[in-house]
Amino acid sequence: MQLDVWSDVVCPWCYIGKRKLERALERWDGEAVEVVWRPFQLDPRAANSGRPMVDVLGEKFGADGARQAQARVTEVAAGVGLAYDLSRQVEANTFDAHRLLLLGREQGVQGAVGERFFHAHFTEGAHLGDRDVLVALATGAGLEGAEAALDDDALAERLTEELAGGVAIGVRSVPTFVVGNRGVAGAQDPEVLLDLLRTG
Fold first, then answer.
1. Which InterPro entries match (predicted)?
2. Which terminus of the chain, N or C, has fewer Cβ atoms within 10 Å?
């Protein structure tokens, strides 16, 4: 059985959703599940500015609103064992990160690369729009050829097609979990994800 998960590595709810999925899979006693991580960009026009995300969000929602939102998601993350330090989170465009995740899928290390990107962004303040940072993180997670992949036009074209494919099937928010022709959006609890696996 294949479970497609549409997500973005700078989405705090996607990392939370990943942990909830892992808990669901620990309890799953059906056929083997292959998890395939699919690309989605929360903001395709995001700059690789490296600016603190609290400032970026503050421009959209006001300083108080940004801090309150970060406090809420940090609390939820702690509930699934994640130690977010969003004061260190920085703005990044994730196209290149997704390019490496796509290569990681082909090499069988996509899960490890994605986990490393999530942790680096949400707890270490790593700049996921910086090529050198991405190459170091991905290589450390077992990816081969990371540097060359960032200049691979064919890989970029395949990624663009996958991004468009998500939009075409109706993915509007992430994480979105899809089995067959059924899906659920949001950082769902394990029980909801188990029901998707049973009925998908």
1. DSBA-like_thioredoxin_dom, Thioredoxin-like_sf
2. N
Residue count (the chain): 200
Name the residue type at position 17: G
Is the four-CA dihedral 31, 174, 11, 97 of positive or negative sign? positive
CB 125 within 8 A of CB 90: yes
CA 182 to chain centre: 20
- Can you give the pLDDT at residue 135? 98
Distance CA 10, CA 93 (A): 9
Distance of alpha carbon 43 from alpha carbon 74, whole angstroms:
21
Q: What is the pTM of this model?
A: 0.96
Average pLDDT over residues 99-120: 98
Contact 187, 20 (CB under 8 A): yes
Nearest to 37 by CA among 122, 129, 109: 109
